Amino acid sequence: MGSISFIFMRDRSEGRCIVVENIISYVITLLLVGIMIYSAILDFRKREIPIELFLLLFVPASITGIILNSGPTWGEACFSACFVGGCYLIIARYFGGGGGDVIMMASLSLWLGYQIGVVIFVANMLLILYRLLEKMWEKEAAEIAYAPFVLTGVIIERILYFL
């Protein structure tokens, strides 16, 4: 149990403490999925991702999740953020892409920990499917927005998480 859980448990049963933690997890998830929806729309329309939102909201939400023991541990969160951020930085450097994608994925992995693998898998499978459909329709490959694919991955990961 985390330190916040201990404070809630002084006068309440363990069941009520879990309910409080779950409510906070749901609220944080709704807030961050809302940011992802906004980012996906902005990325689709203008090909830019609002990195300020990720830095201002995902980091505190990740810390809250760690304190409440409802997310990854400190080590897991930091390792996954550095690993995923580093991989996306290398991809952006050598294959093109913006810094917004790097910050978005590093922030998401700070929040999700190792579960970011589900998001990356779903997002990239959808991206590959989209590119294959583009080739079937004989359309020229154009720059595409990555955030909508990541949003779909986040929604699927959160559904699996809360089931």
Give a topology summary.
Layout: H1 3-9, H2 14-46, H3 51-67, H4 74-95, H5 99-112, H6 116-136, H7 147-162
Helix pairs in contact: 2-3, 2-7, 3-5, 4-5, 6-7
What labels describe this entry?
mainly alpha; 7 helices
Q: Can you characterise this structure?
A:
With 163 residues, this protein is an all-alpha fold. The chain has one domain (3-162). The chain has seven helices and no strands. α3 packs parallel to α5, α4 runs antiparallel to α5 and α6 crosses α7 (147-162). Residues 1-12 have low confidence and may be disordered.
Largest sheet: none
- Structural class of the secondary structure composition? mainly alpha
N-to-C span? 21 Å
Helix content estimate: over 70%
Specify the overall morphology.
Answer: globular
Entry summary:
The chain is mainly α and 163 residues long. It has helices at 3-9, 14-46, 51-67, 74-95, 99-112, 116-136, 147-162.
